Amino acid sequence: MTPNPLRWMSFPVERGADWTKTALLAYSGDAATKTGLAIYIYAITEDMKTAHAFSSLDGDMLIIPQSGTIDVQTEMGNLLVRQNEIAMIPRGVRHRVTLPYGPSRGFICELFQGHFRLPELGPIGSCSLANIRDFQVPVAAFDGKLQAGRALGNDRSWTIISRLGGNLFSCTQDHTPFDVAAWNGTFYPFKYDLARFCVLGNTLYDHADPSLFTVLTAPSYREPGTAVVDFAIIPPRWNVMEDTYWLPYYHRNTMAEFSGAIITRQDPDCPWNQGLEFQPYGAALNSGMACHGANSDAHRAAEEQETTPKKVQTEGFTIFLLETECPLWVSDWAVEWKDVLKTREANAKPRL
Prior knowledge:
Elements: E1 6-8, E2 23-30, E3 35-44, E4 52-56, E5 60-67, E6 70-74, E7 77-81, E8 85-89, E9 95-98, E10 104-111, E11 135-136, E12 145-147, E13 150-152, E14 158-164, E15 167-173, E16 190-193, E17 214-219, E18 227-234, E19 237-239, E20 256-263, E21 283-286, H1 296-304, E22 310-312, E23 317-324, E24 329-330, H2 332-348
Parallel strand pairs: 4-14
Antiparallel strand pairs: 1-21, 2-3, 2-24, 3-10, 5-8, 5-10, 6-7, 6-9, 8-16, 11-16, 12-13, 14-15, 17-18, 18-23, 19-22, 20-21, 20-23
Protein backbone atom coordinates (compact mmCIF):
# COMPACT_ATOMS: atom_id res chain seq x y z
CA MET A 1 0.00 0.00 0.00
CA THR A 2 1.41 3.38 -1.01
CA PRO A 3 0.18 6.99 -1.16
CA ASN A 4 2.18 7.51 -4.37
CA PRO A 5 0.33 7.63 -7.72
CA LEU A 6 1.14 4.56 -9.80
CA ARG A 7 0.95 4.05 -13.56
CA TRP A 8 1.61 0.95 -15.63
CA MET A 9 2.20 1.79 -19.29
CA SER A 10 1.86 -1.88 -20.25
CA PHE A 11 1.39 -5.36 -18.82
CA PRO A 12 3.22 -8.59 -19.67
CA VAL A 13 1.25 -10.84 -21.99
CA GLU A 14 1.37 -14.62 -21.77
CA ARG A 15 0.83 -16.31 -25.11
CA GLY A 16 -1.55 -19.25 -25.03
CA ALA A 17 -3.46 -17.94 -21.99
CA ASP A 18 -7.16 -18.61 -21.49
CA TRP A 19 -9.78 -17.19 -19.09
CA THR A 20 -8.31 -18.98 -16.08
CA LYS A 21 -4.99 -17.11 -16.48
CA THR A 22 -5.88 -13.77 -14.89
CA ALA A 23 -3.40 -11.67 -12.90
CA LEU A 24 -4.25 -9.93 -9.62
CA LEU A 25 -3.39 -6.24 -9.80
CA ALA A 26 -4.83 -4.68 -6.62
CA TYR A 27 -7.22 -5.58 -3.82
CA SER A 28 -8.72 -4.54 -0.50
CA GLY A 29 -10.48 -6.47 2.21
CA ASP A 30 -10.98 -10.20 2.21
CA ALA A 31 -13.31 -12.53 0.38
CA ALA A 32 -13.54 -14.67 3.53
CA THR A 33 -15.08 -11.79 5.51
CA LYS A 34 -17.08 -10.47 2.51
CA THR A 35 -15.38 -7.08 2.56
CA GLY A 36 -13.76 -5.10 -0.24
CA LEU A 37 -12.85 -6.06 -3.79
CA ALA A 38 -10.08 -7.23 -6.12
CA ILE A 39 -8.99 -5.99 -9.55
CA TYR A 40 -7.62 -8.47 -12.10
CA ILE A 41 -6.38 -8.11 -15.66
CA TYR A 42 -6.77 -10.66 -18.44
CA ALA A 43 -5.09 -11.00 -21.82
CA ILE A 44 -6.22 -14.18 -23.56
CA THR A 45 -5.47 -15.78 -26.90
CA GLU A 46 -7.11 -19.19 -26.42
CA ASP A 47 -10.58 -20.58 -25.79
CA MET A 48 -11.01 -22.37 -22.49
CA LYS A 49 -10.34 -26.07 -22.89
CA THR A 50 -13.16 -28.28 -24.06
CA ALA A 51 -15.43 -29.38 -21.20
CA HIS A 52 -13.87 -26.87 -18.77
CA ALA A 53 -15.80 -24.24 -16.80
CA PHE A 54 -14.81 -21.54 -14.31
CA SER A 55 -16.47 -19.79 -11.39
CA SER A 56 -15.42 -17.33 -8.72
CA LEU A 57 -16.55 -18.28 -5.24
CA ASP A 58 -15.08 -15.03 -3.94
CA GLY A 59 -17.34 -12.42 -5.50
CA ASP A 60 -19.37 -11.02 -8.39
CA MET A 61 -17.23 -10.42 -11.48
CA LEU A 62 -17.63 -7.15 -13.41
CA ILE A 63 -15.90 -7.77 -16.76
CA ILE A 64 -14.54 -4.68 -18.54
CA PRO A 65 -13.03 -5.60 -21.92
CA GLN A 66 -10.45 -3.14 -23.21
CA SER A 67 -10.39 -4.70 -26.66
CA GLY A 68 -11.79 -7.78 -28.35
CA THR A 69 -14.93 -9.87 -27.98
CA ILE A 70 -15.58 -12.71 -25.54
CA ASP A 71 -18.37 -15.28 -25.77
CA VAL A 72 -19.47 -16.20 -22.24
CA GLN A 73 -21.49 -19.38 -21.78
CA THR A 74 -23.11 -19.29 -18.32
CA GLU A 75 -25.40 -21.63 -16.45
CA MET A 76 -28.26 -19.23 -17.26
CA GLY A 77 -27.49 -18.73 -20.94
CA ASN A 78 -25.00 -17.07 -23.29
CA LEU A 79 -23.63 -13.53 -23.41
CA LEU A 80 -21.65 -12.22 -26.39
CA VAL A 81 -19.68 -9.35 -24.83
CA ARG A 82 -18.33 -7.06 -27.51
CA GLN A 83 -15.91 -4.15 -27.41
CA ASN A 84 -17.35 -1.17 -25.47
CA GLU A 85 -19.67 -3.48 -23.52
CA ILE A 86 -19.39 -4.73 -19.95
CA ALA A 87 -20.77 -7.88 -18.31
CA MET A 88 -21.39 -9.12 -14.78
CA ILE A 89 -21.19 -12.76 -13.70
CA PRO A 90 -22.60 -13.41 -10.19
CA ARG A 91 -20.52 -15.16 -7.55
CA GLY A 92 -20.54 -18.93 -7.96
CA VAL A 93 -22.10 -18.95 -11.44
CA ARG A 94 -20.13 -21.30 -13.65
CA HIS A 95 -19.15 -20.09 -17.08
CA ARG A 96 -16.93 -20.83 -20.05
CA VAL A 97 -15.23 -18.14 -22.14
CA THR A 98 -14.30 -18.49 -25.81
CA LEU A 99 -12.93 -16.06 -28.40
CA PRO A 100 -15.09 -15.81 -31.54
CA TYR A 101 -12.97 -13.11 -33.24
CA GLY A 102 -9.45 -13.47 -31.88
CA PRO A 103 -7.58 -12.26 -28.78
CA SER A 104 -9.15 -10.16 -26.05
CA ARG A 105 -7.77 -8.18 -23.13
CA GLY A 106 -9.34 -6.26 -20.29
CA PHE A 107 -10.08 -5.95 -16.60
CA ILE A 108 -12.19 -7.70 -13.97
CA CYS A 109 -13.47 -6.05 -10.79
CA GLU A 110 -14.35 -8.83 -8.36
CA LEU A 111 -16.71 -7.54 -5.67
CA PHE A 112 -16.57 -9.34 -2.33
CA GLN A 113 -19.01 -7.07 -0.50
CA GLY A 114 -22.61 -6.59 -1.65
CA HIS A 115 -23.67 -6.46 -5.30
CA PHE A 116 -23.52 -4.06 -8.24
CA ARG A 117 -26.60 -1.91 -8.80
CA LEU A 118 -27.61 1.31 -10.50
CA PRO A 119 -26.88 4.50 -8.54
CA GLU A 120 -29.68 6.43 -6.88
CA LEU A 121 -30.61 9.20 -9.31
CA GLY A 122 -32.18 11.51 -6.73
CA PRO A 123 -32.86 14.95 -8.28
CA ILE A 124 -31.46 13.79 -11.63
CA GLY A 125 -34.69 11.92 -12.35
CA SER A 126 -35.36 9.17 -14.88
CA CYS A 127 -33.80 8.59 -18.32
CA SER A 128 -30.29 9.52 -17.25
CA LEU A 129 -26.98 7.70 -16.88
CA ALA A 130 -27.55 3.92 -17.32
CA ASN A 131 -31.18 2.84 -17.75
CA ILE A 132 -32.60 -0.50 -16.63
CA ARG A 133 -34.18 -1.18 -20.02
CA ASP A 134 -30.76 -1.23 -21.74
CA PHE A 135 -29.30 -4.11 -19.70
CA GLN A 136 -29.45 -7.47 -21.46
CA VAL A 137 -30.04 -10.78 -19.70
CA PRO A 138 -29.33 -14.25 -21.14
CA VAL A 139 -32.02 -16.73 -22.12
CA ALA A 140 -31.67 -20.27 -20.76
CA ALA A 141 -29.75 -22.51 -23.16
CA PHE A 142 -29.53 -26.26 -22.50
CA ASP A 143 -26.10 -27.60 -23.44
CA GLY A 144 -26.79 -31.24 -24.09
CA LYS A 145 -28.54 -33.39 -26.61
CA LEU A 146 -31.81 -35.20 -27.08
CA GLN A 147 -31.78 -38.97 -27.05
CA ALA A 148 -35.01 -40.89 -27.55
CA GLY A 149 -36.93 -37.73 -26.78
CA ARG A 150 -35.15 -37.12 -23.47
CA ALA A 151 -32.58 -34.47 -22.58
CA LEU A 152 -29.13 -35.91 -21.96
CA GLY A 153 -26.46 -33.81 -20.24
CA ASN A 154 -24.00 -36.38 -18.90
CA ASP A 155 -22.35 -37.57 -22.08
CA ARG A 156 -18.81 -36.57 -20.97
CA SER A 157 -16.74 -35.53 -17.98
CA TRP A 158 -16.34 -31.81 -17.14
CA THR A 159 -13.60 -30.05 -15.17
CA ILE A 160 -14.79 -27.21 -12.92
CA ILE A 161 -12.17 -24.63 -11.92
CA SER A 162 -13.09 -22.39 -8.99
CA ARG A 163 -11.38 -19.44 -7.33
CA LEU A 164 -11.67 -19.32 -3.54
CA GLY A 165 -9.62 -17.00 -1.38
CA GLY A 166 -7.71 -15.98 -4.51
CA ASN A 167 -6.55 -19.58 -5.09
CA LEU A 168 -7.65 -21.95 -7.86
CA PHE A 169 -9.20 -25.35 -7.17
CA SER A 170 -10.61 -27.94 -9.57
CA CYS A 171 -12.95 -30.90 -9.51
CA THR A 172 -14.65 -33.10 -12.10
CA GLN A 173 -18.26 -34.04 -12.70
CA ASP A 174 -19.97 -36.40 -15.12
CA HIS A 175 -22.34 -33.86 -16.69
CA THR A 176 -22.32 -30.41 -18.24
CA PRO A 177 -22.81 -27.47 -15.85
CA PHE A 178 -24.86 -25.80 -18.58
CA ASP A 179 -27.87 -28.07 -18.21
CA VAL A 180 -30.47 -25.43 -17.29
CA ALA A 181 -33.54 -25.47 -19.51
CA ALA A 182 -35.31 -22.61 -17.70
CA TRP A 183 -34.70 -20.32 -14.74
CA ASN A 184 -36.26 -17.49 -12.79
CA GLY A 185 -35.04 -15.06 -10.18
CA THR A 186 -33.68 -11.55 -9.72
CA PHE A 187 -29.93 -12.11 -9.57
CA TYR A 188 -28.39 -13.17 -12.87
CA PRO A 189 -25.63 -12.45 -15.40
CA PHE A 190 -26.11 -9.40 -17.58
CA LYS A 191 -24.32 -7.21 -20.09
CA TYR A 192 -24.57 -3.52 -20.98
CA ASP A 193 -23.54 -1.48 -24.00
CA LEU A 194 -21.64 1.57 -22.74
CA ALA A 195 -22.65 3.49 -25.88
CA ARG A 196 -26.16 3.62 -24.36
CA PHE A 197 -24.95 5.55 -21.32
CA CYS A 198 -26.68 8.96 -21.15
CA VAL A 199 -23.96 11.39 -20.15
CA LEU A 200 -24.83 14.35 -17.97
CA GLY A 201 -22.54 17.33 -17.51
CA ASN A 202 -22.16 20.95 -16.56
CA THR A 203 -23.67 23.40 -19.03
CA LEU A 204 -22.59 26.70 -17.50
CA TYR A 205 -19.20 26.50 -15.78
CA ASP A 206 -16.63 24.21 -14.15
CA HIS A 207 -16.32 20.45 -14.58
CA ALA A 208 -18.62 17.73 -13.24
CA ASP A 209 -17.33 15.43 -10.52
CA PRO A 210 -16.65 11.95 -11.96
CA SER A 211 -19.43 10.54 -9.74
CA LEU A 212 -21.83 12.02 -12.29
CA PHE A 213 -20.52 9.41 -14.76
CA THR A 214 -21.28 6.40 -12.53
CA VAL A 215 -22.63 3.40 -14.45
CA LEU A 216 -22.84 0.90 -11.58
CA THR A 217 -22.21 1.14 -7.86
CA ALA A 218 -21.92 -1.15 -4.85
CA PRO A 219 -22.95 0.89 -1.81
CA SER A 220 -21.18 0.22 1.47
CA TYR A 221 -24.13 1.60 3.51
CA ARG A 222 -21.70 2.98 6.09
CA GLU A 223 -23.14 6.44 5.48
CA PRO A 224 -24.94 8.11 2.56
CA GLY A 225 -22.84 8.48 -0.57
CA THR A 226 -20.19 5.89 0.29
CA ALA A 227 -19.42 2.91 -1.90
CA VAL A 228 -17.31 -0.21 -1.86
CA VAL A 229 -16.79 0.63 -5.53
CA ASP A 230 -18.25 2.89 -8.22
CA PHE A 231 -17.75 1.94 -11.86
CA ALA A 232 -17.70 5.14 -13.92
CA ILE A 233 -16.76 6.03 -17.49
CA ILE A 234 -15.57 9.22 -19.19
CA PRO A 235 -16.90 8.67 -22.73
CA PRO A 236 -17.23 10.85 -25.85
CA ARG A 237 -19.54 13.76 -25.03
CA TRP A 238 -20.20 17.43 -25.71
CA ASN A 239 -18.66 20.23 -23.68
CA VAL A 240 -20.69 23.43 -23.90
CA MET A 241 -19.35 25.66 -21.11
CA GLU A 242 -18.14 29.01 -22.44
CA ASP A 243 -15.36 31.11 -20.94
CA THR A 244 -14.52 28.55 -18.29
CA TYR A 245 -11.87 25.93 -17.56
CA TRP A 246 -12.79 22.52 -19.02
CA LEU A 247 -10.37 20.17 -17.28
CA PRO A 248 -10.83 18.78 -13.76
CA TYR A 249 -8.88 20.86 -11.29
CA TYR A 250 -5.76 19.31 -9.78
CA HIS A 251 -7.34 17.53 -6.87
CA ARG A 252 -7.37 14.91 -4.13
CA ASN A 253 -10.14 12.32 -3.70
CA THR A 254 -11.37 10.70 -0.53
CA MET A 255 -11.65 7.47 -2.56
CA ALA A 256 -8.92 5.45 -4.19
CA GLU A 257 -9.18 5.70 -7.98
CA PHE A 258 -8.13 2.97 -10.41
CA SER A 259 -8.37 3.87 -14.10
CA GLY A 260 -7.87 2.19 -17.44
CA ALA A 261 -8.89 2.56 -21.08
CA ILE A 262 -11.67 0.96 -23.13
CA ILE A 263 -11.06 1.10 -26.89
CA THR A 264 -14.12 2.51 -28.67
CA ARG A 265 -12.69 2.37 -32.21
CA GLN A 266 -13.70 -1.14 -33.18
CA ASP A 267 -12.33 -1.34 -36.71
CA PRO A 268 -9.58 -3.98 -37.05
CA ASP A 269 -7.21 -1.44 -38.60
CA CYS A 270 -7.12 0.62 -35.42
CA PRO A 271 -3.58 0.24 -33.97
CA TRP A 272 -5.01 -0.07 -30.45
CA ASN A 273 -6.81 -3.23 -31.51
CA GLN A 274 -3.66 -4.96 -32.71
CA GLY A 275 -2.19 -7.76 -30.61
CA LEU A 276 -2.52 -8.14 -26.86
CA GLU A 277 -0.59 -5.13 -25.63
CA PHE A 278 -2.64 -2.87 -23.38
CA GLN A 279 -3.01 0.41 -25.26
CA PRO A 280 -2.92 3.37 -25.20
CA TYR A 281 -1.65 2.58 -21.70
CA GLY A 282 -2.11 -0.08 -19.03
CA ALA A 283 -3.66 1.35 -15.89
CA ALA A 284 -3.22 3.96 -13.18
CA LEU A 285 -3.93 4.03 -9.46
CA ASN A 286 -4.32 7.11 -7.28
CA SER A 287 -4.73 6.34 -3.62
CA GLY A 288 -7.10 8.30 -1.43
CA MET A 289 -5.89 11.87 -0.90
CA ALA A 290 -3.10 11.46 -3.49
CA CYS A 291 -2.74 14.62 -5.62
CA HIS A 292 -3.48 14.09 -9.30
CA GLY A 293 -4.89 15.80 -12.37
CA ALA A 294 -3.92 17.09 -15.79
CA ASN A 295 -0.22 17.55 -16.57
CA SER A 296 1.25 20.97 -17.31
CA ASP A 297 0.95 20.62 -21.10
CA ALA A 298 -2.74 19.73 -20.89
CA HIS A 299 -3.26 22.58 -18.42
CA ARG A 300 -1.71 25.14 -20.78
CA ALA A 301 -3.74 23.81 -23.71
CA ALA A 302 -6.94 24.12 -21.66
CA GLU A 303 -6.09 27.70 -20.78
CA GLU A 304 -5.55 28.64 -24.42
CA GLN A 305 -8.29 26.64 -26.16
CA GLU A 306 -11.50 28.11 -27.54
CA THR A 307 -14.40 27.20 -25.30
CA THR A 308 -17.12 27.08 -27.91
CA PRO A 309 -19.23 23.88 -27.76
CA LYS A 310 -17.49 20.84 -29.20
CA LYS A 311 -17.24 17.05 -28.94
CA VAL A 312 -14.52 15.84 -26.58
CA GLN A 313 -12.97 12.46 -25.71
CA THR A 314 -12.99 11.46 -29.38
CA GLU A 315 -9.50 9.89 -29.48
CA GLY A 316 -10.96 6.40 -29.91
CA PHE A 317 -10.95 5.31 -26.29
CA THR A 318 -13.03 5.85 -23.14
CA ILE A 319 -11.50 6.12 -19.68
CA PHE A 320 -13.11 3.98 -16.99
CA LEU A 321 -12.77 4.50 -13.26
CA LEU A 322 -13.10 2.12 -10.34
CA GLU A 323 -13.44 4.37 -7.33
CA THR A 324 -13.50 2.76 -3.90
CA GLU A 325 -13.60 3.93 -0.32
CA CYS A 326 -11.26 1.01 0.46
CA PRO A 327 -7.48 1.64 0.42
CA LEU A 328 -6.03 -0.65 -2.25
CA TRP A 329 -3.08 -2.96 -1.77
CA VAL A 330 -1.02 -3.48 -4.92
CA SER A 331 -0.12 -7.12 -5.57
CA ASP A 332 3.50 -8.27 -5.43
CA TRP A 333 3.31 -9.11 -9.13
CA ALA A 334 2.12 -5.60 -10.02
CA VAL A 335 4.86 -3.97 -7.91
CA GLU A 336 7.55 -6.14 -9.49
CA TRP A 337 6.31 -5.36 -13.00
CA LYS A 338 6.21 -1.65 -12.17
CA ASP A 339 9.90 -1.89 -11.20
CA VAL A 340 10.67 -3.69 -14.49
CA LEU A 341 8.98 -0.90 -16.46
CA LYS A 342 10.90 1.74 -14.49
CA THR A 343 14.21 0.01 -15.29
CA ARG A 344 13.33 -0.30 -18.98
CA GLU A 345 12.42 3.38 -19.13
CA ALA A 346 15.68 4.39 -17.47
CA ASN A 347 17.72 2.21 -19.84
CA ALA A 348 15.92 3.63 -22.87
CA LYS A 349 16.89 7.22 -22.06
CA PRO A 350 20.02 8.53 -23.81
CA ARG A 351 23.01 8.84 -21.51
CA LEU A 352 24.95 12.14 -21.55
